[in-house]
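Lecture 7, part B: from sequences to assemblies.

Below are the input chains for today's worked example.
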Amino acid sequence: MKLLQQLGKNIAKILIFNGSKEREHFIITDNNNSSQGKETNKEKETGSSNGDGDSKYTGNDKNKVKGTGGKKRKNGRCQIKKPVRVAKSSLSVKEQELKNIEEEIKQKNFDFEELSVNSSLEVNKRYLEIIYSLPKNKDIIIREFYIALEKPLKAFVLFIDGLSNADIINNSILKPLMVLLDEGVKIKHGEVAEYIKEHLLPGHDVKLLNKYRQLLDFVNYGNTAIFIEGSSQCLVVETKGWERRSVGKPEVEQVILGPHEAFNETLRSNTGLIRKALRNENLITEMLKIGSRNRIDVAIMYLEDLANPQLVEEVKKRISSIKTDYVGVAGVLEQFIEDSPFMFSPQILTTERPDRVVSFLVEGHVSIIVDGGPQVLIVPATLFSLMHSAEDYYLRLPYGNFLRVLRIFALFISILTPAAYVSIVNYHQEMIPTELLLSIAASRATVPFPTIFEIFAMEFAFELIREAGVRVPGVIGNTIGIVGALILGQAAVQAGIVSPILIIVIAITGLASFAIPNFSISFGFRGIRFIFTILAAFFGILGISGGLFVLLLSMVNMKSFGVPFLAPVSPKTTTGPDVILRGPVWSMERRVDYLKPLDTRRQPKISRGWLKNPRQGGKK
Amino acid sequence: MKKILVGHWETAAFVIILIGAKAFLGYPRMVTDWGLTAGWLVVLFSGLLSIVFWLFIAGVLARFPGKPLTEITELTFGPFLGLGINIIVFLYLLFSTSNVLRLFSEASTLTVLTETPVNILALLYLLAAWLAAYYGIEAIFRCSYFSFPLISIGVVLVLLLLYPYFDLKMLFPLMGSGMGPVLMSSLWGTSAFSEVVLLTYLVRYFSFNPQRLKNVGVFSISYIMFFFIVIVMVYQMVLPYPTGSETLVPFYQLSRSIFLGHYFQRVEAFFVIFWTFTAFLQIATGLLVGAIILQDTFKLPFYRPLLPALTLLTFTTAFLPEDLIQAIKLEGEIRMVYGWIIAFILPIFVSLVALILRKGEDKVNGSQN
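Predicted structure of the full complex, as structure tokens:
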């Protein structure tokens, strides 16, 4: 009976043209030009739909009224000439629309890109319920309230609990709209959102959006969306406020002299750290989004008056072309954009130090910051830049160069020591001084295994200790290295499994690999060490030579964003005195040529104005 | 397709290493054989003569900008005769590369891996060279440029460390076997510098103009000539003539003589890295240039598919000589004595005919206009 009565009322409403509510109904339904019914009743029940004259249908609803049968635009306003007869239906248009969307979502072919904010609050709420699977999804909050206008206007805020700052929402959104608003203020309904943005919300970052895709990206990132009855635009207020790690000390790239700040997991903190260190209006931060499921922000930073535009374009092209569902951290993005994924060496520099990023930006490089990770990518990278550390520049020239020479030795030791040991012991015993040879022979007398087995056993144990030291948590993790090294090494020697000299070889190799400043390339060299050892076992020093030849070939063949990996040495390009060793800071007058920066000169020929002797670089 | 270009420094390093590789094989011994105590004079004269040859060839190349010698030969002699000449050049290169492969493999067996079969070592050299040739000209040239200072340092180190054994008297009599034999051997001694002619087959990969190519050739020959002179002089000052003319691997013999006290004796194995590195580069170059000559001759779109067959061919040809002695004879008595005819005289002949007939030159200029 109730259903019949309701139906009768609805039919009566269709046939009898009655006031502003009906107008609203026609406007809302004109896209489909079909039925009505329950929605109108719902609006009536909630009181959200009110007859505020034509102003309600101006502005963003223009497109909706265009071309409909019963309406005509005049002076930017919609005027209803006559009612439109609609077909009888058990469902309202909105509900039908919602039902369709629901179906589409279920069939996984719904495209949020095209979905616009509806002027009806109820429709928007329903959309959000579908999109966010409400009420199942418990940390998505929709808080309904009335905006304290002359005639209270219904609205709701949407935010994610734990991601947004409750204080900002309470004090900067709800309080101004519900409490502080002067009741005498009269606002036309179509301009409510605009008025609120300009007069009521004190937030520093407020946007008006009308596409769901855009606003969902913001809400998913801790912002708050405000939906207002009758407005087909949504206000998005910056309210990010999740628990975050503060700016801490670098974990991997520690220095004694120099800044002790490191990036954290928040994109904006990281871009801020770079901006703080590089105060230049030409520093550009472009934002891209990648990942279809996590839609993560990726910032590209470069100096507009310095970085090669082709390089910037190439970076943007590679990142924006990525089609994947999830990119969590910089390391994953690196694998998507690097030139040679199967090569041993990284072609992109990863750093956790803002000062390092800045030093590359002022050279004309481009940095890529992925939200959610404390590492920043720098492109392009060469072998020499991967072998430099931040401290090289902070120390005085002789000390900095000493460190670099030490590191070059470390590089060769980490690759070649086990191979050289195997090669000498197996094939070139004459190279070992007689006393040492006798000592090695005596120590190996009790070892029943061939040298190659010894080497691999100890290398494997060493890698195991290293890996376990990283994985095992807390105090045990720190001690496992010492325990492993002492006990395992000592026990292995006493058990006659390995010779004592081998322990020294492995220990030196391990130490040397730790001295390589870039974690990623150190990993690569650790890997190829095994190949060299095998080659040495089969072909002695000739195998090592062959291995070096192939290694060099692969390196000269590698490129990082179009830049040869061994530049500026091979191919030879113009550069300042900062390749293997570095010159005095005042002699670094030119930027590296291989980047083709827009400004090649870093400083004038005479950078130390106080010097009087021209031979020392002073004024003539 | 990406345009591959290499610079003049890389090219110079490439030529120097290519020519210099024979210093690690039997070259000092051969020169000592030819000129006796005046071996260094043979090097000097043959180097100067090679520069003259090169200047002529490079001058003609400048008249055919961007054209490799294979194409100039075809333009001058027509497709059939041109093809025949190009095939002769290819066969010479194949023979030369194969013999170098055999000699380096034998030298490795003699010096560091005495129990390893020579064909296994040849395989090691060839596999690395194949990879290098596959990577292409850019990789080989850059590899040469990168390794050039390291190899130079290694060579200089060996020469300096031999200082205690220098005996100047060994260089006398200065004229050795007399001016006549010295000059004669200087003529065929130009074969030692003949690798510079390989540049004429690679001109389309250079980022610089023909004038600079000419300078690169002159610089490379002069540089390596200086090194050869020093190596031969040191060789003769350290090892007396009778011993010097019998050593199979002279440079290794020199490095074996180094004694730096009790803890640094017998470090020759360390220096093996340097000369084997040049071996890899030289064999890779032989494969690559051979493939490029075939590609140009038969107008093939790519050279890489030729590499497996060429590698196999080089391997089998390398083992045609029965033993090391025969391989050394082939190198010393055939390639070094007659190689200059194919390496220098043939291109000069082609250039002369091209100059006289002005056949291809007109065509090229016409097509450019």
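Note for the exam: The domain at 21-359 of chain B is CATH 1.20.1740.10 (Amino acid/polyamine transporter I). Keep this in mind when comparing with the next example.
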